[in-house]
Amino acid sequence: MNNPVPDVGGKKELPSRVNSLGWLLLVTGIALAGLGYAVDPRRMAFDNVIGFLLVVSVAAGSVFLVALEYIGGAVWSVPMRRINEFLSSLTLLAPILAVPLFFHLHDIFHWLHPEALDSDAVLAGKSPYLNVNFLIIRFVAVFVLWNAFTYLFTRNSRRQDESGDPRLTTINIRLAAIFMPVFAITLTLTAIDWAMSLEPHWFSTIIGVYYFSGTVLAALSVATYIIVRLHENGYFPMLRRDHFYSLGALLFAFINFWAYIAFSQFLLIWYADLPEETFWFINRWHNGWEYVSVLLIIVHFAVPYFALLTQESKMDLKRLKLMSIWILVAHLLDLYWLVMPTYHESVSLSWTMLAFPVLFVGLTVVVLSYNMKRNNLVPIGDPKLARGLSFHL
Amino acid sequence: MNDKLLYSITAIFDSPDEIIHAAHETSSAGYTRFDVNTPYPVHGMDRAMNLKPTRLGFFSLVFGILGAASAILFMSWISLVDYPLVIGGKPFWSWPAFVPVAFEVTVLLVAVLTVVTMIVLYFKFPNNSHPLHDTPYMKRVSSDKFGISIQADDPKFNERDVSDFLGKLGGKEIAPVYFDTEDLGHGHRFFEPKFLLVLAVMAIVVSGGTYVIFNQIMFMEPFTWMSTQAKQKAQRPSELFKDGIGMRRPVQGTVARGFLPYAFTGNPDAAGRSLLNPLPMTKDVIERGKAGFLTYCSPCHGNFGAGDSRLRGQFPNPPTLHSDKVRNWPDGSIYHVITEGQNVMPSYASQISRDDRWAIVNYMRVMQRAHNAKESDLK
Known about the structure:
The structure holds 2 protein chains of 2 kinds. Chain A is an all-alpha fold.
């Protein structure tokens, strides 16, 4: 390597205090979830769907961001790419969170009830897709694919740390090109299986894109928060305002993308005014859900839009930290809005809602700390690293 | 050189990194009146030059709010006040439909007005001259070099110091730029005769062009084909008649052929009693009645008049024509119902001619007989 790369390499472990906190949160989350299943299994199953989708968002979204960097030839994100790689290993753990769901499928999926199928021609017509065997096949296929790509991306990236071989980047670019259509299909299937089929009569062709926009936001906000925190604590001394500006700009772009997709979905259904589509929104406009719907627009769009609008705010570390947590919570609210009206027609709050977010935070910290112990924090062998470090707008 | 004043000292650099460095050093050295010229936007220049954030963003915000508000107000005015239309059974004021339009107008207005504001505020439009124009320096920095120009009106300016300073930064082709005294005071010359003349010419050309396009060119026919014919069209004046009215009234006391007024309006009983079917029961007449029946009657009453069309159940049910009531009606009553309508059935007087109506009555009689055939009919 002829490029004068500043000394950024090496493994940098998180303090054991953080690791213990992560384990504590993880165990607390699991305990809460277990307690929830003991007290009110149906309610807990719905919260489990939200929690599962949240982890899938961050996991699949991180794989997507890694692939995006390769396929787009991005330079600015190379020094921080490891964070996305670390988070993408959540794809291995996400299916575990769905295991309890498979014992409560009857509680969450109306299309599974045989008596409903008998009297309902629509559900009977959808049964070639909506049946348990095919659901399990899809579930397994989706996660096998995601894990395979995650494994290949990160393996090549880690090998490059030692060899510095630029051909590994080329291989990953080709992998990313294959991954993109695979990701589009698998994420759409996930959104249909775990969000749309909760209301088996309803259909929206845009639901996959809708969930995708939230997915990228969730993954990006988690990564942004981690990167800013690590930078503040001296892990990423080489990052500059230009890097943070890029993170903020990407967050801002996807805030707008989410609003665009969410409004498109609403506008088309509102315009056509077909009863088989509108009832989904009508359910979200009665019995207190109208407040959640309005809150979602404010929390998921209006506030982060204005908070990240100016150039300065995208570089302000405090603002970025606040907004990345904010956007993650907004995504959680989005999932709640997507899933919960099926559980109960009116808004219902419960302590069980806390279980999976707590579990998720703990899991993320543990996964991050595990990976940071074993891997270099910066991809030192990447041929684009020198340009990434000297990146300015 | 008596009428020439020193404008600035310029220097050329080779790379964006050098110019960023030079701009940073210049602003750090305390110079405030200087500018940087590059062939493309170099990011990070604002900070290197220590510039205050531009006010342009504020203008954009104002224009954006203006655009959104005007679009929403305009659409609200159209759909509530000027031309309320029910579209798809939705309320007059259907805001979701406004969102895409409001968004587009906002973007359009922000983009156009921000550029105009930038040109007026920062380029001092309509002033189009600048001392750096037509200099060798400008030729270089508008193709592949990066230049810095420290102005003579800087409080720290000193010709020799600045030249030395730029030389120390690594600048090449350090040269002074002069300008004519007549170029002094380049403010907004909105009231300059030349500018007003240009504005007037533009206004005349744009409005005149718009007028010609919308009033002349739009109505030009490239080929007349058969659309222009020497005949009188409805609602058009006529040169043939003295009063110039194309649509003539009938001569007083006469009735046009086939336009005999109906004498039994609102009087079905009299129609049944007085009207007699002028058509005979021949095969031709029945065929004619069948065609009329299948065209106008069967969509509601069914192909065989049994009231079993696909409208059944979606509408007040169309009655069967084989009921005792209809069968015992005289022909005149059936003719009256076709002419005037009954209950939800509208009048068919304008669609079905008088003779066709009688033919349909005959065809109905045939169907009624077929539907309630007597023993004797089978023989």
